[in-house]
Structures are given as C-alpha cells and as structure tokens.
C-alpha cells in the first residue's frame, strides 16, 4: 500500500477561481485545451482573395439561420386552400398551402418578408461566392497537390448548392417556381429508358401531383444541407490540415506559412467579417425586392408567367435548352428528345470539365510535387485561358437563358439572340482562350522588362547631346523576387522518334497526345523565359540601363 504525500494544488496555491474549475472540468471530459493549444496559434496568410471562402461560409450560415426561421411558418403541403389573407388581389383565389403559407410569411409574420428576402439574397450570393472562390483557387493553382481532394469537396458543394437553391425556390409553389419545376420534369423525362420512372419518383406520380413540395422540402431542409454541412466541415478540416497556400513574397517558401495566428487575430477579423457580410446581405434584402410571389400568383399547370427566369446559377442550363434546336429521333416506338437531352448532358459535362482539371493538369505536365506557393495567373497562360473560356461560356449561356428579356430590353428578335448564342457557344470560348493567352504572355514580357530595366518612372530627361530618355527606377528586392519566383517547368520529352539503330521507337498515341498537350502548356509559346542572373547582372552593371 502506498500513501501519497502530494498536497492538492488548491491547498498549495489557495482556492481555485470558479472559472478555472469549470475550464478544468470541461477539459477533463473534452480535451479541448490540447486541441486548442495545437491549433489556435496556426498561422494564416493574408490576401484579400482568401476572404472569398469566408463569404461562402458566412452566407451558408445565414442560410441555415434564416431557413430555420422559415420552417416555423412554411407548410410543405399541396393541399388546396382558398386565400383570405390581407393581400386583396388574391383573396378568394384557390392555391396550395405551400403558396398560402409563403404569403402568410410575407405579409403577416413579423419580420417574415425580411427573413425570406435575406434567405433568397444569401442563396444568390452564396453560389456567386462559391464560383468566384473556385475561380480564385483555379487561377492561382491552389488545387494542386495536396489539395486536389479538397477541390473535389468544394466542387461537390457547388454542384449540390445549385440544386439546394433550385429546390428552395420551387417550394413556394408560385407560378414562377412551378414553371421551373415543369421545365425540370421535361428534362428528366427526356432521359432515355429511365426518364418516366425518375419523373414518377420525383413527383410522386403524374406532374405536378400532390407530393413534390413535401419531397423537395425534405431534400431542401434536411438531405442536401446535411450533406453540404458534412462536406463543408471536411473542407475546412482539410484547409487546416494542409495549411493555407500563399503568394510568393519576402520570406515565403514552399515549406513555411507567413501570416497571422488563427487566434486571436484571424478569429477577430473573421468574426467582424461575418457581421459585415450579414449586414450587407440584410441591407440588400431590406431595400431590393426578390421573388415577389404575390405578383406571380399560384402555380397552375395551364399558365406560364411572362419573363420567367430561374435564379442566375440555373440560367446556364436554361440557356442551353433555349438555344438548342428541337431535334427528335423516333425509333422502335420511342421518341428521343435530343433537343432537351443534349443540354441535359452538356450541363454537367461542362461542370465536370472543371472538376477534373487538377488531375488532367498534373497528368499533362507530369507534375507530382507538392505546391504551397500560388501561381500568378499570367505565368500559367493555358490554365488561365481555359478558366476564362469556361467563364465566358457560362456568361454566353446566361444570355441564352434570358433571351426573352434581352429581346424586350434591347429590341432584338429572339431569332437573332438564339443564333448569336448558338454561334457564341462554339466561338466565344475559343476566342477568349486565345485572347487571354496573348494577354498573359504580354504581361509576362512586361514583368521581364521590369526586372531588367526597372519601372518606368514617367520622368523624361534630356541628355547633354540632346537625346531624351525616360528614367527607369530599379525594383526593390521584394518586387524582383515576386516577379521571378515562379518555376518555369519544361514540357515532357518523349525522346527521339527513332533509336540509335535508326529503328522507329514505339510510342503510344496517348503518350504522343500527352507530350503535345505538355508542349502547349509549358512550351515556348506559353512562357516567356525569365531573365537569367547573367542577363540581370549585365544590364544592371552599366550599359543599357537607363
Ligand atoms: C445552401 C443552403 C440553402 C439555399 C441555397 C437555399 C435557397 C432557398 C431559396 C432560393 C428559397 C426560395 C425563397 C423565396 O421564397 O424567395 C428557399 C426557401 C426556403 N428555404 Fe432555403 N436554402 C438553403 C438552406 C435552407 C435551410 C438549411 C433551411 C431550413 C433549415 C431552409 C428552409 C427553407 C424554407 C422553409 C423555404 C420556403 C419558404 C420560402 O420560400 O420563403 N433553406 N431556400
Ligand atoms: C460551401 C462552399 C465553400 C466554403 C464555405 C468554402 C470555404 C473555404 C475557406 C474558408 C477556405 C480558406 C480561405 C480561402 O482560401 O478562401 C477555402 C479554401 C479552399 N477551397 Fe473552399 N469553400 C467552398 C467551396 C469551394 C469550392 C466550390 C471549391 C472549388 C471547386 C473550393 C476549393 C477550395 C480549395 C482548393 C481551398 C484551399 C485553398 C488554399 O489553401 O489556397 N471551395 N474554402
């Protein structure tokens, strides 16, 4: 038997503060101190574009907060009722309970209309935030190893987010949302073989049936946000685990992170930014009407509202359908509606192209290394060109999705717009790609010039013999580093086509394509050589330097 001679710490140092006792009690059960100690001082680099992910996070939080409030008053039911609320023009009109309850939220619930509008505006900003955040990650190459999986998590969040928005704006069962749901039913029906079954599962029988609002409701408030929340947590854990990327600069390497500690500086900034985002969205929602369902009226399958537009993120798929010729093939007693089915395939394909880009890029370039320093978009012209082409395609199709509004606002015929978008679908991305690539190369040349000759100061001097020159100011060391820090990898080399005996080497077609793509990515037409140390020394040591 042993006896302890240790005195409890409370008797040694006097009684413990109640706060300390609570902290110790909690820590003994949750182990938070150790977790906090190892993570709270984590360093976060600073750049304005790193706030885009935060905008997504905060708008998602606002969506959950306002969404919960809406569930308290929204009735996800398609049972018929007669409206007798305060909005006089609709009194006595038959409508679903879903529509009536959204009218109730808008006109009778205290703060209801504001919360509805905050919910809807946050949804628009949330998805816009995700696209801009995704493009920042894309253009700077932040998706490269080890962040490819996190890129996929993010991409899935965007994909699900679009459908979360779609199920949301379908809930009020007004004429506009009904028109959108009808459109979706048509798209689902065009799927060969399983289309009819899919439509029956989705709508619980014939369209519109009595069930789609409850089905969409479960998806909207439970299933999709649940999956999104899980993905989001995984996304943020991975951001923490990998540590954040940073732009090249003084003292920044592939092996360190230069910035501010997570606690207290980053948390204080992030907390303030949350309220800023909430404030801006609340201000927009308070002054700008969104989705005024009372002007649309309840959904009736025999009516369509004029100027029907989906929310902006779905305008892209709407554009595809609107400009697609109405092709149909009939075979063995079945009709394949290509006019709808092709857009249904193109929509995810275009999105998938961006999802798989990290894998495609590392395969083409043979780059298997880890990257924590970001690229400047100009130094990767092919990637930047592709990203711009993708965005321009998106915008072109958005114009197609709003062809009726463009026609009425700019006094154009629908035919003109449809044909412009059809041609634009093929031409605009290609043109944007080449223009962007040229701009990037131009910027690379300018960087090279700045390193070798300094910055143009705008000061003109006249030399004794009469010549006018502009004084160039040399760059400081940090600027020189930023302009020259990027590696310039060489394209893949597949070796000579014939071996030393003159016999043709067997090179697979795939390897040839890969080498060609790699030349396109890193070849002489895609990067302007950085100034070498010798070039720099020669110019700055005397002659040639103004
Ligand atoms: C990423 C998340 C979300 C997005 C993008 C989103 C989007 C939308 C949109 C666009 C509407 C139509 C609003 C309108 O009437 O003008 C809506 C309605 C609704 N949302 Fe969400 N939502 C999200 C999350 C949630 C969550 C988490 C809940 C509940 C916990 C929720 C509950 C509701 C309800 C009850 C409605 C119907 C009421 C109404 O239309 O006013 N939402 N949602
Ligand atoms: C619900 C939506 C999303 C939220 C809340 C979110 C949040 C964040 C946050 C807070 C960061 C760190 C700060 C920053 O770099 O901005 C981040 C980083 C990142 N996100 Fe997202 N994100 C979302 C969607 C996406 C999407 C759509 C993609 C791409 C398809 C993506 C890919 C990434 C990647 C690769 C990083 C690491 C970047 C780096 O370390 O530089 N995220 N995300």
Automatic annotation (TrEMBL):
InterPro entries tied to this protein: Cyt_b/b6_N, Cytb/b6-like_sf, Di-haem_cyt_TM
Annotated TM spans: 48-74, 120-139, 151-171, 183-203, 215-241, 273-294, 336-360, 381-399, 419-436
Statement: the UniProt record of this protein carries the keyword Phosphoprotein: no
EC number(s) stated in the UniProt entry for this protein: 7.1.1.8
Residue span, Cytochrome b/b6 N-terminal region profile domain: 22-248
Biased composition (Low complexity): 1-11
Origin: domain of life: Bacteria
Keywords: Cell membrane, Electron transport, Heme, Iron, Membrane, Metal-binding, Respiratory chain, Translocase, Transmembrane, Transmembrane helix, Transport
Chief site of localization: membrane
Gene Ontology CC terms: plasma membrane
Enzymatic reactions: a quinol + 2 Fe(III)-[cytochrome c](out) = a quinone + 2 Fe(II)-[cytochrome c](out) + 2 H(+)(out)
Cofactor requirement: heme
GO biological process, one term: respiratory electron transport chain
Protein name: Cytochrome bc1 complex cytochrome b subunit
Species annotation: Actinacidiphila paucisporea
């Amino acid at each position: 038997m042993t006896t302890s001679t240790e005195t409890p710490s409370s008797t040694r140092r006097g009684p413990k503060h109640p706060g300390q006792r609570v902290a110790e009690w909690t820590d003994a059960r949750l182990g938070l101190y150790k977790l906090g100690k190892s993570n709270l001082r984590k360093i976060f680099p600073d750049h304005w574009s790193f706030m885009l992910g935060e905008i997504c996070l905060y708008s998602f939080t606002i969506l959950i907060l306002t969404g919960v409030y809406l569930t308290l008053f929204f009735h996800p039911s398609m049972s018929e009722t007669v409206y007798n609320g305060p909005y006089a023009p609709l009194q006595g009109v038959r409508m679903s309970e879903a529509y009536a309850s959204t009218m109730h939220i808008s006109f009778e619930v205290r703060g209801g209309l504001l919360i509805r509008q905050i919910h809807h505006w946050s949804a628009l900003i949330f998805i816009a935030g995700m696209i801009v955040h995704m493009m920042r990650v894309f253009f700077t190459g932040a998706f490269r190893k080890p962040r490819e999986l996190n890129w996929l998590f993010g991409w899935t969040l965007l994909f699900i987010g679009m459908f979360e928005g779609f199920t949301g704006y379908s809930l009020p069962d007004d004429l506009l949302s009904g028109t959108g749901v009808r459109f979706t039913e048509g798209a689902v029906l065009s799927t060969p073989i399983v289309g009819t079954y899919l439509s029956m599962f989705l709508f619980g029988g014939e369209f519109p049936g009595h069930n789609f609002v409850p089905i969409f409701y479960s998806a909207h408030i439970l299933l999709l946000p649940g999956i999104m929340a899980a993905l989001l947590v995984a996304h943020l854990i991975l951001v923490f685990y990998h540590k954040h990327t940073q732009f090249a600069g003084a003292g920044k390497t592939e092996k360190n992170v230069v910035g501010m500690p997570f606690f207290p500086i980053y948390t204080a900034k992030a907390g303030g930014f949350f309220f800023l985002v909430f404030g801006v969205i609340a201000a927009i929602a308070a002054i700008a009407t969104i989705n005024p369902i009372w002007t649309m009226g309840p959904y009736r399958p025999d009516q369509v509202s004029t100027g029907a537009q989906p929310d902006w993120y779905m305008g892209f798929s709407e554009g595809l359908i609107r400009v697609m010729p109405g092709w149909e093939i009939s075979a063995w007693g079945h009709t394949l509606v290509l006019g709808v089915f092709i857009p249904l395939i193109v929509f995810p394909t275009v999105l998938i192209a961006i999802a798989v880009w990290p894998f495609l890029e590392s395969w083409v370039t043979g780059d298997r290394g880890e990257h924590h320093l970001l690229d400047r978009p100009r130094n990767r012209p092919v990637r930047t060109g592709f990203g711009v082409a993708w965005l321009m395609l998106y915008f072109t199709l958005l114009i197609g999705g709003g062809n009726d509004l463009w026609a009425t606002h700019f006094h154009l015929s629908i035919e003109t717009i449809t044909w412009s978008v059809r041609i634009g679908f093929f031409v605009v991305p290609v043109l944007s790609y080449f223009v962007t690539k040229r701009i990037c190369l131009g910027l690379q040349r300018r960087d090279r010039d700045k390193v070798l000759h300094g910055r143009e100061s705008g000061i003109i001097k006249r030399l004794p013999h009469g010549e006018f020159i502009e004084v160039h100011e040399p760059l400081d060391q940090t600027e020189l580093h930023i302009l020259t820090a990027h590696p310039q990898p060489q394209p893949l080399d597949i070796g000579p086509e014939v071996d030393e005996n003159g016999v043709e080497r067997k090179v697979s077609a795939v390897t040839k394509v890969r080498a060609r793509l790699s030349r396109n990515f890193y070849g002489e037409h895609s990067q302007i050589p950085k100034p070498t140390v010798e070039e720099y020394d020669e110019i700055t040591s005397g002659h040639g330097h103004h």
